[in-house]
Design a protein that fits this description.
Strand order of the largest sheet of chain A: 2-1-5-3-4
Number of strands of chain A: 5
Number of helices of chain A: 5
Shape of chain A: globular
Oligomer: heterodimer
Radius of gyration of chain B: 27 Å
Strand order of the largest sheet of chain B: 3-5-1-12-9-10-11
Strand content of chain B: 15-25%
Number of strands of chain B: 28
Distance between the termini of chain B: 77 Å
Distance between the termini of chain A: 43 Å
Largest sheet of chain A: 5 strands, mixed
Number of helices of chain B: 21
Structural class of chain A: alpha+beta
Largest interface: A-B, 56 and 55 residues
Order of helices and strands of chain A: EEHEEEHHHH
Largest sheet of chain B: 7 strands, mixed
Helix content of chain B: 25-40%
Structural class of chain B: alpha+beta
Shape of chain B: globular
Strand content of chain A: 5-15%
Radius of gyration of chain A: 17 Å
């Protein structure tokens, strides 16, 4: 493990949504600030900076993580996915994103990036969840606009559509 | 698909907002770039609830790395004026502590530095010498003249007291066969948007002008408060909002003192200053709903008919009366009889100051506090008189056919069919089955209760209601205040495209989508043909003091204004088209992107060609038909000032809600489980069913939080106890059930589209509906929020001594 100096900036390089990115950060810089303000990837949002609200959830090396509880230097060499990497192409949405739009599963959209990242991961590993499973899993995210009902509906719908797609694949 | 009429309104079309938000391309305040050289602010906040500031030493902080300036009360008082206070009292309200701190979390100093990390570092070097004072925390204590006064000029802590009398309440109470009363203590809570406050402030010394980008939501009456505080004319405070805002629910009204504070910081630093509030700051010191102690008494006939109400409301606005307070107390003034036909009312309203965060807008705004008292009272009337609570509600509802109905305190209930809505809810919501479930649960020894609530949901606030806090004589001196200007602009561009601008400042509701539906319907276009721009600029947009996103005014007022503006454009285009089509203007119809002769669709002009004509060939268009841009300012004439008798039509529209629920209380833990929740709404004409459902489920979840989990709690010495999301508990997917939503529609006769507000109703009806169910389950005469497991377990275990006890 490299030794870092508290008052120096260190070069950090990682894979973000399939592309190599790099920038400099002090050891204390949060991954959220690095993503948003150093790299300009503002899709990942900051809601509480103490790991409760889930808005900042990203995928680090295949596992959902709170970017607000992660230092940028910890991401060096990692593979990171953020909400900007979910859509298959510009002007197209993923199955999950489409389901969110169809079910009005977002209002202000501030918590949405984190919820999408968690669900994208979960549905890949749990293709046929029940509502109770989803309620349990999503309890790590706070949404103040929707009351969650349309989010659950969208997640169940997306899961069904993804199963259908993989059955025909 | 029909070619004319309301094709798009009423449909749950996909939102234009969503593609950007779902792909991480939203444009929230902290996503926007800033000018080179912009500084970042961090705020030092008071650790004390109440203390004199003997001295502040910022010398070391000023020398800290990256620091450009440090601002304290001295700079702020030198360069600005106190925020205007809404009651006649000798008190000031500054956006930073001046010689004294009055609540935990109050700003004491601002550091601006080259980045936020360095600004926070420098806070550590500021030395503040405090002389702690006893804190006044409980509003009842604030009535005690022996307690320390927060604002010395005031003498005590009662900032306002008014008594009101409607009908002949004393006689009715004297003659009443029964009197029933409840006393409730409504706690502090907040709807806590997931995005916190944020702004970028800039000062132009050459023009003595401020330019601020902030996720402020209105009301823009506060623009006047800010400009006066900054000592500039209104045209020298340019206020802009970002395209997206991460929720507000009233709360982002409270960013306004920071606009003043950071404006001063930018002026002192000579560079733009950006500040993004963090969550700990937000919970401790942004804004809170008021906590309120209410005693309400009813004069009741033996059959449950309520003849008179006596209200005694003690409102706690925290450490300052920050504008627009004490509006929370007066927003519901016209609606103090709820959904009921009660002609005799007395009211005593007192507003007190305590060492807590200043209060402000919060979804429901006065409704949660008021209905908690009124609907607990209705349940107690049933219990004390041995009646069915459902019959007590039925017997007192404003009768169908009585609309428009003028309430005793002055509101005009515009339309409704309350009894019909209630009966449909009972039938379609399965009330009889719910009572069977209760019977079965109780037979098994489970603790199960049913709660009911009827409520009137006001929307589109009268800007004059707050003046009810003044006496008629004070109002005469100040001049009458009333109305609620809504604005919308519809413009045509040189390619015939249609744009809409409003000052509705959406916070995620989907205003852009609904405005596109409304204007598409008016002009025979598709919503995708309409571009709606909702980010606001006070220097360029049409706006007035009522602009903004509050009091559920969008659908009823702003949507209506857009409809009217589109109608004006359409009338001009129709007259131009009539000449070209050789038909009368009334025989011109707009459909499918074409303007055509009714009954002869081949005789048509493309909409875009007609719409572009006034740009390219104005000489060929008659002057009265020039169609480029139309701005409508719409204010409903029904919103009149308070009368000499203090009657006030506090809101324009009044939706109706009837809720019922079944809850089970865990015998061991005291935890409440919502078994079933049914909510019936009449919000007039529904413009977008998906969004209306979203408002209801979202409001319901917040209300569930207020009922069971959330409280901004303070210790007796004024320390703040709910400073993280691990202490202030928001409901999650495991706590929030999906409610059954039902509708009837009685369109408002007072709004252009017949729509009424719907965004706040469940925050008013749901907390007390759940409380009535819990009270029914446990046989409680009195229950206060939040109904935490510990609180309810204490009731359960007090009744039944635990087995282990000898």
């Amino acid at each position: 493990m490299p030794r870092l100096s508290a008052d120096a900036r260190h070069r950090i390089r990682f894979e973000l949504n399939g592309h190599t990115v790099e920038g400099d950060a002090e050891p204390r810089m949060l991954l959220t600030d690095f993503l948003r303000h150093t790299l300009g990837m503002t899709g990942t949002h900051v809601g509480c900076e103490h790991g409760v609200c889930g808005a900042c959830t990203v995928e680090i090396d295949g596992v959902p993580a709170r970017a607000c509880l992660t230092l940028a230097v910890q991401a060096d060499g990692a593979r990171i996915r953020t909400v900007e990497g979910l859509a298959p192409a510009p002007r197209r949405l993923s199955v999950l994103q489409e389901a969110f739009r169809r079910h009005h599963a977002l209002q202000c959209g501030f918590c949405t990036a984190g919820i999408l990242m968690s669900l994208d991961h979960y549905l890949r590993h749990h293709p046929d969840p029940g509502e109770a499973d989803l309620r349990e899993f999503l309890s790590g995210h706070l949404c103040r606009c929707t009351g969650y009902a349309p989010i659950l509906a969208a997640a169940l719908d997306a899961a069904a559509k993804l199963r259908e797609a993989s059955a025909h694949a | 698909m029909t070619a004319t009429g309301n094709r798009w309104c009423g449909q749950s079309v996909e939102r234009v907002e969503d593609a950007a938000l779902l792909t991480g391309h939203g444009r929230f305040i902290d996503d926007l770039g800033v000018r080179p050289g912009t500084l970042h602010a961090a705020i030092l906040r008071s650790p004390h609830a109440h203390a004199k500031i003997r001295a502040i030493d910022v010398t070391a902080a000023r020398k800290a790395p990256g620091v450009a300036a440090v601002i304290t009360g001295a700079e702020v008082t030198a360069l600005s004026a106190s925020l205007v206070v809404g009651v006649r009292a000798p008190i000031e309200c500054w956006p930073i502590a001046v010689e004294r701190v009055r609540y935990t979390g109050e700003p004491v100093a601002v550091v601006v530095a080259t980045d936020r990390y360095l600004a926070e570092d420098a806070l550590e070097f500021i030395e503040v010498d405090y002389d702690p004072l006893p804190a006044v925390v409980d509003p009842l204590d604030a009535l005690d003249p022996k307690q320390p006064a927060l604002h010395e000029g005031l003498g005590g802590n009662v900032a306002s007291e008014r008594a009101f009398r409607y009908g002949d309440p004393e006689r009715v109470f004297a003659d009443a066969p029964h009197r029933v009363s409840v006393t409730i203590r409504y706690p502090r809570n907040s709807c806590t948007p997931i995005e916190t406050y944020g702004l970028v402030a800039e000062y132009d010394a050459g023009e003595d002008a401020y330019d601020v980008l902030a996720n402020f939501m209105g009301p823009f009456s506060l623009h006047a408060v800010m400009a006066r505080a900054l000592k500039v004319p209104g045209n020298r405070l340019r206020l802009r909002t970002p395209p997206d805002s991460g929720g507000s629910f009233g709360v982002k009204q409270g960013v306004f003192p920071y606009i003043v504070l950071m404006g001063i910081a930018a002026r002192v630093a000579g560079r733009p200053v950006k500040w993004i509030e963090d969550r700990l700051e937000h919970l401790a010191a942004s804004v809170s709903a008021t906590n309120r102690v209410t005693t309400i008494e009813a004069a009741v006939d033996a059959d449950g008919r309520v003849r008179a109400l006596a209200w005694d409301q003690l409102e706690d606005v925290g450490a300052h009366i920050r504008a627009p307070e004490p509006a929370t107390l007066y927003r519901m003034h016209g609606n103090l009889t709820g959904a009921y036909d009660i002609r005799h009312v007395s009211v005593r309203n007192r507003v007190v100051l305590t060492n807590k965060t200043p209060t402000g807008l919060n979804r429901g705004f006065g409704g949660p506090q008021m209905y908690y008292a009124l609907e607990r009272l209705m349940q107690r009337i049933a219990v004390e008189l041995g009646l069915d609570p459902l019959d007590v509600i039925r017997k007192n509802l404003v009768p169908s056919g009585a609309f428009p109905y003028r309430t005793a305190t002055g509101a005009t209930l515009d339309s409704g069919e309350y009894a019909k809505a209630l009966e449909i809810a009972l039938a379609d919501g399965g009330f009889a089955e719910l009572r069977e479930r209760q019977k079965a649960a109780r037979a098994q020894g489970r603790i199960y209760g049913i709660g009911l609530t009827a409520a009137v949901e006001p929307s589109v606030s009268n800007m004059g209601y707050i003046t009810t806090v003044l006496t008629p004589e004070e109002r005469r001196k100040a001049g009458p205040k009333n109305g609620a200007q809504a604005t919308a602009t519809v413009s045509l561009d040189p390619l015939g495209g249609v744009s809409v601008h409003t000052a509705s400042v959406p916070q995620g509701q989907g205003h852009r989508t609904v405005l596109a539906q409304i204007v598409a319907d008016a002009l025979g276009l598709k919503p995708s043909d309409i571009r709606v721009v909702a980010d606001f600029d006070s220097a360029k947009d049409a706006w007035s003091i009522a602009s903004g996103n509050y009091s559920s005014r969008f659908a009823a007022a702003v949507g209506g204004a857009a409809h009217l503006a589109a109608g004006k454009i359409k009338a001009k285009l129709a007259r131009s088209a009539a000449a070209q089509l050789n038909v009368a203007a009334q025989d011109v119809e707009f459909a499918d992107g074409r303007v055509r002769a009714r009954g002869n669709p081949d005789n048509a002009i493309p909409f875009s060609r007609l719409a572009a004509a006034s740009h390219w060939s104005p000489g060929l268009v008659a002057e009265e038909n020039q169609a480029l841009s139309e701005t409508v300012f719409w204010t409903p004439p029904e919103l009149t000032p308070p009368t000499e008798k203090d009657e006030i039509n506090s809101s324009l529209c009044h939706g109706f809600i009837f809720d019922f629920c079944g809850v089970e209380v865990d015998r061991v833990t005291g935890a409440v489980r919502i078994d079933k929740y049914v909510t019936m709404h009449d919000c007039g004409r529904v413009l977008h069913p998906g969004m209306v459902a979203g408002q209801i489920t979202g409001g319901f979840a917040q209300a569930l939080g207020a009922a069971l989990y959330e409280e901004y709690a303070y210790s007796p010495d004024g320390a703040f106890l709910s400073g993280t999301f691990a202490d202030y508990l928001l409901p999650t997917t495991t706590e929030v059930p999906t409610p059954v939503i039902l509708h009837i529609e009685t369109p408002s006769p007072y709004t252009p589209l017949g729509a009424k507000g719907v965004g706040e109703g469940n925050c008013m009806s749901t907390p007390v509906c759940i409380a009535n169910a819990v009270a029914d389950a446990l046989g409680l005469a009195s229950v206060d929020l939040p109904m935490t497991p510990a609180k309810l377990a204490a009731h359960i275990h007090a009744e039944q001594p635990t087995r282990g006890r000898k």
